[in-house]
Amino acid sequence: MSDVKFEKVTPVLAVRNVVAAIAFYTHKLGFTCSYTDSPQTPGYAVVGRDEVIIHLQSHAPEEFGHGEGPELRFRVVNVDGLFEEYRTQDVFHSRTTLQDTPWGTREFAFFDPDGNGLFFYSNRQ
Q1: Which end of the chain is more exposed for a tag (fewer CB within 10 A), N or C?
Q2: Is the model more confident about 118 or about 69?
Q3: How far apart are the first and last CA of the chain?
Q4: What are the C-alpha distances in Å from 97 to residues 11, 68, 110?
Q5: Annotated domain spans of the chain
Q6: Are residues 54 and 70 in contact, defined by beta-carbon separation less than 8 angstroms?
Q7: In this structure, which long-range contacts are made by residues 87-96, counting pairs with CB atoms below 8 Å and at least 24 apart in sequence?
Q8: Among 2.60.120.260, 3.20.110.20, 3.10.180.10, 3.20.20.70, what is the CATH number of 12-61+68-123?
Q9: Would you say the pTM of this structure is higher than 0.85?
């Protein structure tokens, strides 16, 4: 048996415009920006909320358009409260609903402006 242990993963999301992505994550989703590689024209940024950290990296527009981006699942405390918080932020798509799943979670999801899927869930008791 090996003593190797994975501790966490920090996703790097492809975005078309880092400034716009920072605005979406900070103004709409309640994250804070802790780093940009350039104050005027950032190509890379770090945003976080509580224990979650996401890196945002600029990619050329031609790198998009091959379907949606990756999907991230955020385990949160009080997913109902987060759903209500985000309901007023104009981030949901037409199919966003808060639902109980057959696999024992309560969750909802939507896409960020660059097509990255954001799933938020709590385990049901």
Answers
A1: N
A2: 118
A3: 33
A4: 25, 19, 9
A5: 12-61+68-123
A6: no
A7: 89/28, 89/29, 90/28, 91/24, 91/28, 91/29
A8: 3.10.180.10
A9: yes
